[in-house]
Amino acid sequence: MEATIAGCAELGVPGIGLWRDQVAELGVARTAALARAAGIEVTSLCRGGFFDAPGWFDDNRRAIDEAAELGAAVLVLVSGGLPAGSRDVDGARRAVGDAVGRLVPHALAAGVRLAIEPLHPMFAADRCVVATLGQALDLAEPYPSSAVGVCVDTYHLWWDDQVWAQLARAGAAGRIACFQVADWITPLPEGVLLGRGLPGTGCVELRRFREAVDATGYTGPIEVEIFHEDVWSRPGGEVLRETVERYVEHVL
Amino acid sequence: MEATIAGCAELGVPGIGLWRDQVAELGVARTAALARAAGIEVTSLCRGGFFDAPGWFDDNRRAIDEAAELGAAVLVLVSGGLPAGSRDVDGARRAVGDAVGRLVPHALAAGVRLAIEPLHPMFAADRCVVATLGQALDLAEPYPSSAVGVCVDTYHLWWDDQVWAQLARAGAAGRIACFQVADWITPLPEGVLLGRGLPGTGCVELRRFREAVDATGYTGPIEVEIFHEDVWSRPGGEVLRETVERYVEHVL
């Protein structure tokens, strides 16, 4: 955490999205102080959600509080998969909407926006029943856009021919709370979690997404997200520099 | 092939969908004779497509001829992924539609129906750019439904909340050429090809799909498709019996 925040400051990266488990290692207060001292904005906290887990309500309230303490405007929500033994994906999606609704008062009070993130349909069974931007927007719709938005992640959405219309819908409704760019590389590894390479190493039209999000009037941060053993095994400073270069080349 | 066809006959399974590579091992004429002698209908041939491969046109014409010789009414088409180095998924989908169109005269002459199969979006980059039933129907639309239909496979479509409306659309247009049931089990293995268990071992609402397809007026065959190392490593006869039992329990 210290090295990453220092590295961002050194390279002129103005903000960083953080993960709760890594924040917990250093402590929320210390992480917040570190980012503040370096002039780095915490753009989002990943992640709340997992509404199928016991204790989800209290845990999500804690996540909202942590985001607020970090100065993060957004808490990203990954909904969780089907309840054990269930095949009712429609019901699971409705339950996600209800759970988000129960968090709205606490989010509004804390000044943290909830961002429902659609994950790629390959995660629909065991990680996130919300699988398209259209579904995420449907779930967000009953709640004020100041409290509930969506997270647009290119990795999860690139295959969907409806995504361009749904981006326009999201923009018109002021629902884009978070924008993440990540590239899709094959073959997918076992468990399919760690298949995201550096920008430009995969097949996603990253610049097309950035332009489409820009066109909605979104002016918030753009986060680059990379999950890949080959990338993670390299020195962090080197990866950070290459990420900035590739961001300029493939996204900006 | 001999054992499978004999096993189907013994268990009262009236038809079987075949794969080209396995037909080629025994020979098309011999396979056709074997199925005919056993009173087993060849319900479909898998697969044509891969329109990004060199020689696709001639190879697909051969596949149509093979289907005709086997008495299979349907050739299933898996479109292929993005051309090497390309990120243009829209363009790749348009090219699939054009390629299918070029095959229509030969398919009509041979009396074989082409079935565009949408594969799960996790295959969109490297195996099949057609990722939803809606996309498959869009691509089929310019051509007569007697020549071009779609293949409905529960494994690929279960996560999609649009699928019920698209099934109704497919039925109204007479486009359902093939109906395959396969179940989704997790975790996904490396390469994600072999994640399909026996009916009822996963999270797909198989009966809901069967009823929805029935409701469109479809009266054709229902194929069960299983790709999993654990299943393949068991004796074939045992798997076939369990498949029939599970089909009755979870699909019929």
TrEMBL record, chains A, B:
* GO molecular function annotations of the record: isomerase activity
Q: Which UniProt keywords apply?
A: Isomerase
Top-level taxonomic group: Bacteria
Q: Which residues form a coiled coil?
A: none
Residue span, Xylose isomerase-like TIM barrel domain = 8-245
Pfam families found in the cross-reference section: AP_endonuc_2 (PF01261)
Gene3D superfamilies linked: Divalent-metal-dependent TIM barrel enzymes
Protein name stated in the entry = Sugar phosphate isomerase/epimerase
